[in-house]
Amino acid sequence: MKHVLLSVAIAVSFAAAPALAHEKAQGAAAQAAPASDPALKDVIAVAEKFGAALKAADMATVSSLLDERVLILETGGAERSREEYLGHHAIADAAFLGGATITTQRRHGAVHGDTAWLASESEIATGKGTGSKTVSSTETLVLQRTAGTWRIVHIHWSSRPKKAARS
């Protein structure tokens, strides 16, 4: 558990630094690297593989990408291990994402040694006709590299109904 908490604490401190810098120097460039940064290539590949596996309900792949002590926070709840997530919420996540169209709008992140974070903003559209809905979604992943392999040690998901465009 110390491993996960340390990774989360590191990620939060890295993530907070750009926000604090922005407050001090209005308009200054963020410290987070855009998704095009080559240092993020492998981290983004893990994130995309995880998202595709969850959408396809491929729980074996989902499991292989999560650290056994992963901490997942969503909608005020927490799952504190890979087994807890796979035994509960992963099934509902896969069902929700299965027929959805997911459009990633922005990604930023950073790699600091064997720890990395990746923040994504997306739109998720589900259903058709009057049953359709679109949500704005944010995802923060914290990954730890062990023996050359990136594993997800923390996920924070947040979403809300997409606001209608102003005319």
Keywords:
seven-stranded mixed sheet; alpha+beta; 167 residues
What does this structure look like?
Helix 2 packs antiparallel against helix 3 (59-65). This protein has a 7-stranded mixed β-sheet. The model is unreliable at 4-30 (pLDDT under 50). It has 5 helices and 7 strands. The protein has one domain: Nuclear Transport Factor 2, Chain: A. The N and C termini lie far apart (49 Å). The chain is α+β, with helices and mostly antiparallel strands. It has helices at residues 2-24, 41-55, 59-65, 82-87, 89-98; strands at residues 33-34, 66-74, 77-79, 101-112, 115-126, 133-146, 149-161.
Largest sheet: 7 strands, mixed
Helical fraction equals 25-40%
Mean pLDDT across every amino acid position? 85
Low-confidence stretches: 4-30
| CA-CA gap between termini | 49 Å
Instruction: Count the domains.
Output: 1
* Spatial order of the strands forming the largest sheet: 1-4-5-6-7-2-3
Radius of gyration: 16 Å
- Total helices: the number is 5
Number of strands: 7
Topology as a string of helices (H) and strands (E): HEHHEEHHEEEE
Structural class: alpha+beta
Gross CATH architecture = Roll
- How much beta, percentage-wise? 35-45%
CATH class: Alpha Beta
In one word, what is the shape? globular
CATH topology category name: Nuclear Transport Factor 2, Chain: A
* Assembly context of the chains: single chain
